[in-house]
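Annotated sample (chain length 210).
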Amino acid sequence: MLSIFIFICSALALIGASPAHGKTPTHILAFGDSLTAGYGLAPSESFAARLEARLLEHGHTVRVTNAGVSGDTTSGGLDRLPWSLEDKPDLVILELGANDGLRGMDVDRMRSNLEAMIRLCQEAGAVVILAGMRAPVNWGTAYKQNFEAVYPELAQAFDLPLYPFFLDGVLGVKSLMLTDGLHPNAQGVERIVEKILPLVRKQLKALPTS
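Output written by the structure step:
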């Protein structure tokens, strides 16, 4: 009888500690390309994993989903976004456009794709943080200027928080990049997370569920 009593008490204690009785984690969707996915890194070293860890350290109850796909363009992102939104994220960090720029894709098409993704996120009830990107110089000055103007223009049009350049403080720093010179290494990801963290925390605090 004593063993049965102990079992019942233990079961009740586990039920009381169940996450269903606690605070529901705020869901952050990190939606992007290889920079978000963690190209060349262990899963635990990806942007999403490290952002989640840092937010937990700061006392935020969150889960961060890694929805980065290496090689993805804004067109590819638009195609797969509806599926990613089925999990009802509260906050989306939208990081796409680098591969459009590397391939010299049409800037107006990129703008249209990003705009459509922003609308989809907002219709799903998610707040969007837009992460900007820079274009390579080999497509010419006009292309670079038009490309880089898309992000602040969309942020202003949709009243979005903008992180101007996802690789700020990392691109061009050899100690923070993989040998390909395009992707951050583990230390580079830590730098990205450190720099974007204040903006993410600000948006979390503004959410009704935070």
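Annotation: DSSP finds eight helices and five strands in the chain.
Annotation: The first strand starts at residue 26 and ends at 32.
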